[in-house]
Specification:
CATH class of the largest domain: Alpha Beta
Distance between the termini: 88 Å
Number of strands: 13
Order of helices and strands: EHHEEEEHEHEHHEHHEEEHEHEH
Shape: globular
Structural class: alpha+beta
Helix content: 40-55%
Number of helices: 11
CATH topology of the largest domain: Aminopeptidase
């Protein structure tokens, strides 16, 4: 018999062992890290964990999310990049347990829904069968991440197409690469470059979002599961021109190239940065590690990751809303949020170049007078 309930403090030892063993788990699902991430969220978040407990007390399945509240709506949004979907113990991933697994996921989802009005999160690629979630009223939309799989760093260097290999090799000769400390100076540089990088993709980050990102990089770095990898010109090796935040999950031999920041027009530098970061990871931790790039919001970014030889890997985006007025209010708030975001993008990304051109035109007219 399986009992579905909230994970309590006395379950911590079982939870930690379960997360380490689960193929869908990662280092960010342990209790300490979840509470750390929740403390950086704005508005403030709380951790909600539910589990499917077997008769001997062991966890057959578990699910952990960060829950925030806005306008009386309890909601969970996706984590940035790493997965926060259902996790199963190894034996429940077996091919001969399809029906039991479907019932297990159904009960787990219904237990999680008791503390939520809106759910929007992504499951790990290792969760292939989402039928139990569908029968609990969730929707499961297939999306894609991009992965460099296991293999030596020499093999990894051969995976990008010929053009990207040549560009990366050329950029490697002009730069030095290596890990950097997550100190205040480096984080400040990362923040400035990252903000400029976002504007290139016509996206504007709020100050609170930027602060939460830096806090996460710093504190996850202290916990040993986030590092900054840098590229710097050979002439000025102490001044990085590109940085990537790398998330590490040692128990699952997985790394995520989480956030990249750069101030360069060198087309080969980012491929070189990624290849050098992957090589550093594999040298330190082993050839069995996988390197995850995350998804691609547009086709050009997906094409770039294809050129690097990353394998498009499907996984599920899971959504659910409690029927009623809160769902209507939530959807309306999302429309307003998207409208405001687009207007801010228009103002911060599109208008400044036009304003600069107008100022230049005015200056030329005055010069002509």
């Amino acid at each position: 018999m399986v009992v579905y309930r909230t994970v309590c403090p006395e379950d911590e030892v079982r939870w930690e062992a379960f997360v380490r063993a689960s193929p869908q788990g990662n280092a960010f699902m342990d209790a300490a890290t979840l509470h750390l991430l929740a403390s950086h969220e704005r508005p403030t978040a709380r951790v909600r964990r539910v589990g499917a407990f077997q008769e001997d007390g062991a966890l057959a399945a578990g699910w952990a999310v960060l829950v925030r509240r806005r306008a009386g709506i309890r909601y969970c949004s996706s984590f940035p990049l790493f997965y926060a979907g259902p996790m199963l113990s190894p034996e429940w991933n077996a091919p001969d347990r399809t029906t039991a697994r479907m019932e297990l996921l159904n009960g787990l989802a219904r237990e999680l829904q008791k503390g939520l009005d809106v759910l929007d999160t992504e499951a790990a690629p290792e969760l292939s069968d989402a039928r139990g979630l569908l029968y609990a009223g969730c929707t499961a939309e297939q999306t894609y991440t991009h992965v460099w799989g296991a293999g030596s760093h020499e093999e990894l260097g051969k995976r990008p197409n010929r053009s990207k290999r040549q560009e990366a090799a050329s950029a490697t000769k002009r730069h030095v690469f290596g890990w950097r400390e997550t100190d205040a100076k480096t984080l400040g540089l990362f923040d400035r470059m990252h903000n400029r990088t976002l504007t290139k993709f016509k996206w504007v980050a709020s100050r609170s979002w930027r602060r939460a990102l830096l806090d996460n990089i710093r504190d996850l770095g202290t916990a040993g599961i986030c590092r900054l990898f840098a590229a710097a010109p050979t002439a000025t090796p102490d001044v990085p021109c590109a940085l990537v935040a790398v998330l590490l999950s040692p128990d699952h031999q997985s790394a995520w190239l989480w956030r990249v920041a750069y101030q360069t027009d060198d087309s080969g530098l980012i491929p070189a940065l990624y290849l050098q970061a992957a090589e550093a990871i594999k040298r330190e931790f082993g050839d069995g590690w996988k390197i995850n790039f995350g998804g691609s919001p547009n086709m050009s970014l997906a094409r770039f990751k294809d050129y690097l030889g990353a394998v498009p890997t499907p996984h599920w985006r899971i959504r659910w809303q409690r029927p009623g007025p809160k769902a209507l209010l939530w959807n309306s708030l999302q429309v307003v949020k998207e409208t405001v975001r687009r207007r801010l993008t228009l103002w911060n990304v599109i208008r400044p170049p036009r304003a600069g051109k107008l100022a230049a035109d005015m200056a030329s007219l005055k010069g002509g007078e």
